[in-house]
Amino acid sequence: MTRTNKFFILILGAVIAASCGNQDASVSTDLAIPVSVEDVKPGSIEKTINTTGTLTATKEVAITSEVAGDYHLKINPKTGKKFALGDLVEKDQVIIEFTDEEYVNGIAIESKKLNMDIAEQEFQKQESLYNKGGVTLREYRNSEVSFIDSKFSYERARIQLEKMKIRAPFKGTITDLTYYTDGTKLSSGQPMFSMMDYSKMLMEVNLPEKYISEVNKNQMVRIMNYTLPDDTLSGYVGQLSPAISTETRTFKGILTVENPDLKLRPGMFAKADIIIARKDSVIVLSKDYIISGQRGKTVFVVDKGTAEEKRITFGYENQDEVEITSGLKVNDRVVVKGFETLRNRSKVKIIK
C-alpha cells in the first residue's frame, strides 16, 4: 500500500469518527426530556375546611291586611311606577294603602285629638291650682286620669288609622306581591306582599366530627358560588352546636355571609372555606405538581440538567395547595410541566 493510500485511509477514518461523534451528541441531546420549572419561594397558606350549604335571608316576612278597605298599590318613588317584585324598599315605606270613609269616620281621630288637648289643659290648670292650695288632691288626680284616658283613646285611634297604610317593616326586597285590581274591596287577613333582607345571609352547614376542636365562632369564611366564578364573598362562623349527630357524625354550624351588593340570592347553593389556621413564609406548592406513588408523595427537582425525585411531607393543606415541611428548600427548581414521563436522574432540557 502506497503512502498516499495510507494517508487517504487515515483521513477517511477521521471523518467517519467525527461523524459518529456528532451523531452520538445529537442523540444524547435528543434524549433530554423537555420540562418547565418554577423556583421554590416562601409563601402563605391557610388551613381550611371545605363545606357546602344553602343560603337563607336573615330577615323574612309575609304581610297580610289588618283592616278591610279599598286596595291601592303605591308608586315607588325610585322607579316612578307602582311597586313590583324585586323592588328594594326602605324601612317604614308605605307599599299599600286602604281607603274606607266609614272606617275613618268611625275612628273619629280629630275629636279624640281635641279631647286630649282639652284634658291636658285642664290637667295643667288643676296642677297649678293644687300647688297653690286651690284644689284638693282628689280633684287634681281626677284631672290627671281624664288626661291619661283621653291620651290613650287618641293613641288607639291613631294606631287603628295607621293600619290602613301597610309599611315595610325593615329595609329589604319585595319577593312576592299578590295582585289585586286597584280599588278592589278587600277584607282583613288577605295576603299583601312578602319581603326579605339578604344583605346578610345565613348558611347552615354540617361539619365532620374531627374538626369540632378546631372550628370556633368568628373564624373567617370565604363564600363561592357558580354564578360568581371570579368573585369571593366574606363571612364568619356565627353559631356552632356542641352536639354530634349519632347518625352522620357531624356537628351543625351556621355561617353569616356578608352580601352588601346582593350578588347572592336566598335559596342559592354555595361553597364555603372555613379558615381555621394560617402560616406565612413557608414553602407552598400546588397539588398539580405532586406525584403520588408507592414511595409516597414526590416531586422532581432539576439540578445541573438532571431531574431528581424528592420525597416530600405535608403540613397545612387546602383544596389547591400544600405546605411542604420536608424534601424541598427555597430556590429549588421544581418541575411543573413534563414530569409525567420522568424517572429519577433523567436528563432534562428546560423550556419556557
Task: Kindly describe this structure.
The chain is α+β, with helices and mostly antiparallel strands. 24% of the residues lie in helices and 44% in strands. The chain is built from 4 helices and 22 strands. The strands form 4 sheets. The chain has a 6-stranded mixed β-sheet with strand order 16-17-18-22-1-21, with no helix packed on it. A 6-stranded antiparallel barrel has the order 2-11-14-13-12-15. Helix 3 (109-132) packs antiparallel against helix 4 (137-162).
Give the topology, please.
Layout: H1 3-30, E1 33-39, E2 42-64, E3 69-73, E4 75-76, E5 81-82, E6 88-89, E7 94-99, H2 101-107, H3 109-132, H4 137-162, E8 165-167, E9 172-177, E10 185-186, E11 191-208, E12 220-224, E13 233-240, E14 250-258, E15 269-286, E16 291-293, E17 296-303, E18 306-311, E19 313-317, E20 321-326, E21 333-337, E22 346-350
Parallel strand pairs: 1-22
Antiparallel strand pairs: 1-21, 2-11, 2-15, 3-7, 3-10, 4-5, 6-9, 7-8, 9-11, 11-14, 12-13, 12-15, 13-14, 15-20, 16-17, 17-18, 18-22, 19-20
Helix pairs in contact: 3-4
Annotated CATH topology of the largest domain: Elongation Factor Tu (Ef-tu), domain 3
- Give the class-level CATH name of the largest domain: Mainly Beta
Question: What general outline do the C-alpha atoms trace?
Answer: elongated
Q: Could you tell me the radius of gyration in angstroms?
A: 40 Å
| Total beta-strand segments | 22
Q: Which segments are poorly predicted (pLDDT under 50) over 5 or more consecutive residues?
A: 1-29
For the largest beta sheet, what order do the strands appear in spatially?
16-17-18-22-1-21
| Average pLDDT rating | 90
Distance between the termini: 57 Å
Instruction: Compute the number of structural domains.
Output: 4
Strand portion, in percent?
35-45%
Briefly note the structural class of the backbone.
alpha+beta
CATH level-four homologous superfamily name of the largest domain: Efflux pump adaptor protein, beta barrel domain
Number of H/I helices: 4
Measured as a percent range, the helix fraction is 10-25%
CATH architecture name of the largest domain? Beta Barrel
H/E series = HEEEEEEEHHHEEEEEEEEEEEEEEE
Main beta sheet, described?
6 strands, mixed
